Write the structure tokens for this entry.
Amino acid sequence: MKRLDSVDLEKLKMTGAGRAMAVLTSGGDAQGMNAAVRAVTRMGIYVGAKVYLIHEGYQGLVDGGDNITLAHWHSVTNIIQLGGTVIGSARCKAFTTHEGRLSAAFNLVQRGIANLCVCGGDGSLTGANIFRSEWSSLLQELVEKGRIAETVAQQYSYLNIVGLVGSIDNDFCGTDMTIGADSALHRIMEIVDAIMTTAQSHQRTFVLEVMGRHCGYLGLVSALASGADWLFIPEVPPQEGWEDRMCARLEASRTGSRLNIIIVAEGAIDANGKPISSTYIKDLVVKRLGYDTRVTVLGHVQRGGTPSAFDRILSCKLGVEAVVALMEASPDTPACVIGLSGNHAVRLPLMECVEMTKLVQQAMNEKRFNEAVKLRGGSFENNWNIYKLLAFQKPAQTKTNNSLAIVNVGAPAPGMNAAVRSAVRLAISHGHKVYAFHNGFQGLADDNLFEMEWYTVAGWTGQGGSRLGTKRTLPSKCMDKIVNTLNKYSISALLVIGGFEGYHGVLELFEARGHYEELCIPMCVIPATISNNVPGTDFSLGVDTAVNAAMEGCDKIKQSASGTKRRVFVVETMGGFCGYLATSTGLAVGADAVYIHEDPFTIRDLKTNVEHLAEKMKKDIQRGLVIRNENCHEHYTTDFIHKLYTAEGKGVFDCRVNVLGHLQQGGAPSPFDRNFGTKMGVKALQWISEKLADNCRQGRVFANAPNTACVLGLNRKVVSFTPVAELKPLTDFEHRVPKDQWWLNMRPLLKMLAKYQTSFSEYVPGSLKHVTERSLSVDAGF
């Protein structure tokens, strides 16, 4: 893939110089839109373009005047953490008319604007494409009416359009996630957690209605992340007789539990297309089962609140790519929308995405529901299949001879319990016996175990920390004892959920197979650490929760300085020698500098940062934020950086230190980590069952091939099982990190959005990805 190097950046600046562009938000608001506006504005200014903010969406574009304002770098300061959209959004009937679009064209061309970035849903983006297709004829009409000169029409003869999808429903085909969807899930799970406590106290059933008139994404993911007993979404109507099956399911789940949760999307329908209301479900449960049942309609609370870390980072990535796409556009370039594929921004033909999105609704209207699920993409289909698997499974009547051991290793990480729950239940449904060992490999050595039953793990999905307990002890310290325990309980497979020590420990067990036959069993590692430093995966369980916790801490720190003039905060994050947590937090909160081990820095760099902040403080900005990874430098400690900033900034600003510490490790898991842990537990157990079947001879398991000891990872959006033996040469054991880390390509974005001159040699521009029925059907989304 082509890379933008520093020469290309200069070309971009030459292209941007003298050009004007505008950004607007339209349709329903979504958390993260402000972060997108900020990124587009700053990247546009960075490449030398004039950037205009259009207030009140298309209505402001039609009305013109003060609704279209020239932006400066500081126009978008301190908005990244705000929900909604500070430039406003409005449904605009006038823009759907020819006269309205003629006024809009005049208001743009009057200011020399021929590049437009629209953040909204499919209706807003379709309107933008219509506007683009009519642009030439609209300008010609303005010339004929004497409102603009012919030379002006020739100078701005074509309009470039780039879209960003802002929608909490995640209903736009072609992109893995839309801006606002993750934040909406945060609001839903906060309410689910609160409701579960009261439901448990009173042994109640709760029916929760979430948004999703035409798309069940929010309902599906929140059901998976909460372990809901029943789910209603528009794409998968229940078959005839669902009332009996649901009531039977609710009765069965009351064994070992004091509550029921039913999640219903507002657009839920039955097989005949008849709406299923939350009130109908409540009345049904009361009548059939006599359960104390309540309805909670979440409504617009799902749109509100501060954006999640994921939505802020997503908006930064997509906003920067939108400007690059606009600067590179030509008259022959089709209008595109910037989407997400795996960890990377991609350019998608706008109308291909819109047409595919319409096909989903058409399939639902024609009751081709299986096709509708597939058209939603691989991630939606995978979520639905795993929800079905977990919701309708039950303990096997026939037992196998296999015994599975589960351990948590390393430091606690949010999402560990969700992975344990799904793995345990799937293992029991397969007929396996499951032993859980307390305190990692040390517990395995000390015979510190208990047998897991079906209801042992009830309610674990939303619990933080590690219910099994963890330790960092490696097997090499107690290998003989571990082997004795494995032999004593006839352990057939080992599932390790943990951080770098979990991976390192399984590597040690694999390498010891030549000495101990008992270690010739399938072994799988689910990476779980807030440091995100396990080789073989892009993401570890717990890191999303940790980034959100660090982000929320930094938001409060920044807010505390709002009444204090000229103050810089130095904030220390965890992460060991891996800078992912610090870098992601820095991008999510708009940090002025982030110091990490992977990006070496000198005293000159520190001095440059101090001077940069001092210059900002002399103008409109009254506070600064610097983030330091705990092990970024042997000598430039947090205390050293604090003293340096204090001394060098004397007379301009003062400086304070905050060490976030273990608050990054605690708390309830984020929706992503609950969902991720649940799915990883399922995938791990399916792999283990497959390996047990493949390596069983005459009733005895013997697995010594490298591919029977693996790390289960998510790379881009593909699930992979990588042998620990293959990962060993790719690992820096001294610093406990992979030698190659994908997230370093976020560093240029962070520096650019903080107004540092930087090379884009590591920036990978989005490639063009076509969106068709076939591309959606083969999408490997997880």
In short: The longest strand covers residues 113-120.
